[in-house]
Design goal:
- The protein is an alpha/beta fold and 269 residues long.
- The chain has a single domain, classed as 3-Layer(aba) Sandwich (Rossmann fold), CATH 3.40.50.150.
- Strand 1, helix 4 and strand 2 form a beta-alpha-beta unit.
- The termini are far apart.
- Bound molecules: S-adenosylmethionine.
- S-adenosylmethionine binds next to helix 1, helix 3 and strand 2.
Length: 269
């Protein structure tokens, strides 16, 4: 239920919790409503480290953007499940290194659309676009005019699926949807994924999943094997499919198992 004095932006339902807004709440943002804070708090009760985990997930995005530009020579990105803008956004990290970098953001939540303009504040030399579309319909993303105008699909693309795949049920066959996007990208493209898992702390994660699903959300924690299948036959870059904090960490003393996400980056042969 909405809280006192809360007004919904057009198209935004503030009577049901939404993942983008719960995540915004954990990260200290202001684009969340009573219903989101309620579920967000229940999940925090289950996993006291959740805010830390969200921060580790964002740091992974920054390290991946940096390395894909610097080490893989990638200058164009497709980020699906963007979320409410959190600075620095992907294009800001990439354009700091390569000002001509181009990014297409995709999300299906109307609250993210409200912020699309902020996501599109590109460097003058580069470009940033926003598409309102759903990962469960990959053709609607790859066929979008803005994507085709922004990305050159004959050159490698960095596809980022960061903390989104857990929001797709097994019945939606997210593996086939991701494969459809992988297939549309050329050799040398890279795919980066983070995905929550119960592999490190089943009791806490099961309780958090129960809090979310009890509020009507879809949330699926997946095993390392199930997450690994999203990469298909692409080759995992070093250090492989690892806890999110241990993927090329800036801080070598970070606790690898304190953030319950698998993460990895793979390159298309
Ligand atoms: C937890 S947020 C992650 C935000 C960002 N990727 C990050 O990790 O900082 C998940 C985002 O995925 C979006 N999302 C969920 N299901 C989606 C779908 N089927 N298609 C497109 N976006 C989706 C949500 O609206 C939300 O903004």
């Amino acid at each position: 239920m909405s809280g006192p004095g809360e007004v919904a932006p057009p198209g935004v339902n503030i009577n049901v919790p939404h993942s983008a807004r719960i995540y915004d709440y954990w990260l200290g943002g202001k684009d969340n409503f009573a219903v989101d804070r309620g579920v967000g708090e229940a999940m925090l009760q289950a996993i006291p480290n959740l805010r830390y985990m969200a921060g580790e997930n964002r740091k992974f995005v920054h390290r991946v953007a940096r390395d894909l530009v610097q080490k893989e020579g990638i200058t164009q990105f497709l980020d699906i499940g963007t979320g409410i803008p959190t600075r620095p956004n992907l294009h800001e990290v990439a354009q700091t290194i390569e000002p001509t970098a181009r990014v297409v953001y995709v999300d299906n939540d109307p609250i993210v659309l409200v912020h699309a303009r902020a996501l599109m504040l590109s460097s003058p030399e580069g470009r940033s676009e926003y598409i309102s579309a759903d990962l469960r319909d990959p053709a609607s993303i790859m066929g979008d005019r803005a994507l085709q105008d922004t990305l050159d699909l004959n050159k490698p693309v960095g596809l980022t699926l960061i903390a989104i795949l857990m929001l797709l049920a097994d019945e939606d066959d997210p593996w086939t949807k991701v494969a459809a996007i992988r297939d549309a990208l050329p050799s040398g493209s890279c795919l980066a994924i983070t995905h929550p898992t119960a592999d490190f702390n089943p009791a806490e994660v099961d309780a958090a999943v129960a809090a979310a699903t009890g509020a009507g959300m879809t949330l699926v924690a997946r095993s390392q094997e199930a997450v690994g299948r999203f990469f298909g036959d692409w080759e995992l870059l070093e250090p492989g499919l690892v806890p999110v904090s241990s993927w090329r960490p800036d801080d070598p003393d970070v606790d690898p198992k304190a953030a319950y996400y698998w993460s990895g980056v793979a390159r298309k042969p």
